[in-house]
What does this fold into?
Amino acid sequence: MSLVFNKFVPVLLAALFLPGLALAEEAAHQPLDLTASGVGFAAIIIFLVAYLLVMAEEFTHLRKSKPVIIAAGIIWAMIGAVYMSHGMSEMAEHAVRHNLLEYSELLLFLLVAMTYINAMEERQVFDALRSWLIQKGFGFRQLFWLTGFLAFFISPVADNLTTALLMCAVVLAVGGDNQKFVALACINIVVGANAGGAFSPFGDITTLMVWQKGMVEFWGFFALFIPSLVNFVVPAAIMHFAVPDEQPTVGGEAVPMRRGAKRIIALFLLTIATAVSFHNFLGLPPVIGMLTGLGYLQLMGFYLKKTRVRDNKQSEKSKNGGQVGDIAAFDVFNKIARAEWDTLLFFYGVVLCVGGLGFMGYLSLASDLMYTQWGATSANIAVGVLSAIVDNIPVMFAVLSMQPQMGVEQWLLVTMTAGVGGSLLSIGSAAGVALMGQARGRYTFFSHMKWTPVIALGYAASIYVHMLINF
It folds into this structure.
């Protein structure tokens, strides 16, 4: 990062202190238009450099949160300096606090969801599902469809990244050295997980953001079920004929769930219901319901800890309850510590960076170009294509910050395209990037890109179906 600072610090200093800045100062209660200023140009450059480093994470091994956090700090420092010089520091402070509040709600919501997923993983819920699939002796084509459909239906509850990793573990366990099957199954899983996450507020970060902003009601997302299903089924049906029609030879032992696993699954569903109820019936932010649900898990952890010795003895005697005792005491705070903190901090950097650029006036310019000149439908389709190259989180946050005047059907369209558009390339979604690492050498960027035209056909079909039934 020192090279980046050495290169751009002079630009920042010049932008801040040269007298010829083109600042369009409006009334005292209006933010300054910095889009044509040196500060604005410097902010754009800093954000682009940071995002290039994010995209190069696979090669540089620099965690994606680091460059965007630093970029966010520099951008807002520049904004603060300009507004201080104009005697408007309170306006900048109010703006950054607003962005910080938006991030805080997202952070706490995701933290609770990740904690539950980690708890279910520690209770061997996912291991039990994987061993069940392996033991059934399905053929490659059957496994292709099973893992795809499971990815489609699990991702609305768990996130698409966790779902994709789980299904990929199954594929790797049964696929062995059959590289063709592994590559096709991984592509199918990525498409299925991203499509399944698009019709649920909990399936993807972008859908969660749209729901928390109040653009679409909780049950409104399920209008995307059929278009999302089309997005998954169309490419899967074509790829089916390329999957080897063979039988895997890999076997495996049954993996029982640990005690409390089923109760934790039930508590997770209750937590989701609590979050929905707080938002729909009480008018409170969904994050309050999610944090209440974290309390459910804490009480469950207390119960498991207090009854550990007794239940372990009973488990040793019976050994037929479909579960095993605790190897170690259940500790909910260990599950919180194991959350994807790099991802959570990456969201902070993205929200603050995009918020800063929006405060400078760039999002208004983009909104006028896309949603006024192009039209909402064309703009929303373009958002999906863009999300195949740039992560869909900053793209969706930018759209939400623009606040274009659209009906619910258009908000559903951009929600779907931002979610499923990432399937066009392996680098377009967190699921694809993660599977390239998990199935290294077998599922690659080029093995995915080979099927991009087929995935694009599903993308177009899902948009057509959505416009047919929801417009």
Observations:
- The chain is about 70% helix and 0% strand.
- The longest helix spans residues 89-122.
- The longest strand covers residues 257-258.
- The chain has a mean pLDDT of 81.
